[in-house]
Hints:
With 410 residues, this protein is α/β, with parallel strands linked by helices. Helices cover 34% and strands 24% of the residues. It folds into two domains: 4-26 and 271-398, Lyase, Ornithine Decarboxylase, Chain A, domain 1 (Beta Barrel), CATH 2.40.37.10; 59-264, TIM Barrel (Alpha-Beta Barrel), CATH 3.20.20.10. It contains 15 helices and 19 strands. Strands 1, 10, 11, 12, 13, 14, 15, 16 and 17 form a nine-stranded mixed beta sheet that branches. Strands 2-3-4-5-6-7-8-9 form an eight-stranded parallel beta barrel, surrounded by seven helices. The longest helix has 22 residues, at 183-204. The two termini are 45 Å apart. Its cofactor is pyridoxal 5'-phosphate.
Amino acid sequence: MEHKELRFQRLLSNDEVTNGxxxxxxxxxxxxxxxxxxxxxxxxxxxxxxxxxxYKTNHIPGICKLVDTLGGYAEVVSSxxxxxxxxxxxxxxxxxxxxxLIPGKYMADILKFDGKVNVESWExxxxxxxxxxxxxxxxxxxxxxxxxxxxxxxxLFKVLSKITEAKQTVAGIHCHVGGSRSLQxxxxxxxxxxxxxxxxxxxxxxxxxxxxxGGHLFGRMDEELKKQFGDDIPTFREYAExxxxxxxxxxxxxxxxxxxxxxPGTALIADAVSILATVQNVKIRGMKRVATLDVSSHxxxxxxxxxxxxxxxxxxxxxxxxxxxxxxxxxxxxxxYINREYMGRLKTGDRVLIHNCGAYSMSMKGNFxxxxxxxxxxxxxxxxxxxxxxxxxxxxxxxxxxIGGRRCAT
Length: 410
């Protein structure tokens, strides 16, 4: 990897390609490292581990296709995402895992072609059983007592009975626990799922094919962002040593061990995307300065709501200031914060790089005030490889709209 200043110079020279507009930069090298390293750490301990990328976290087709190239599965939660996964996997529906809340015939279609569906409600189970055209293998989502998702443990016997009465098979169990990403949380949920798996197998009389532990892992991040999360930030290796070891010790004497599935999104994509933006103005407000960029916190993802994203001034690197700058977005809302206490220097026209913007940014932004940013694939040295998405246009807003019964023209 080149020295930072050289990489910054290359970024500035890319303005001929990007037209000086704000853009997303997807570091494909970093994403591949994240995927391979996470999978490798788990497979060292439990070889039958599979990574399923969470499409909802960032569903840009080029990223989803890269996952497929790496041998990863697609974790989807809607019919739209299922259709995208069907396209990205070249119609290999067997590499699709559905965990959505809205029942539909497409759930049975995924199972028909050997995909995985983890039903989480009575309506979802009924939909699958009524639409199944052949014998299928169904997954069951297990929820916590205080969660709105999945079946409770107390409902499991009835769920298993319904599936058995319909002469269908239970393939596996699934959970996804939000909140804490700590090792203790992962240890607790893994132990719980292994216990439930044992109980389910005892009731059914046959072994499960998979145990799906969902996502919600910490990923890699720069030191400035990491310190805002405290001391308990596990590495991929530490997650594997905690989780995969428990699964291995449970099944090591079994000839056919169940597949362990992880569904990371943020852990893979967050630090693989940065935003290249420009300072529009800097104002003095009391004892602080306020800088406005040509992007908003909505472009950066949900993390901007509660953390200060790392910002680097690539026009004048390493210039420090004793007066904090509040870096804001372009919206008409006071609390459009990207960094609330930036301690560098900024002036109008400076180009800045905002890090850790890959998770829940593009997939949630829409065309609020300004259209969606373009995205370019870069390598570790910020050399542009290809365009992944063009900048949004007015037609994205008007194309499917009508006024007085007539389609809008742009």
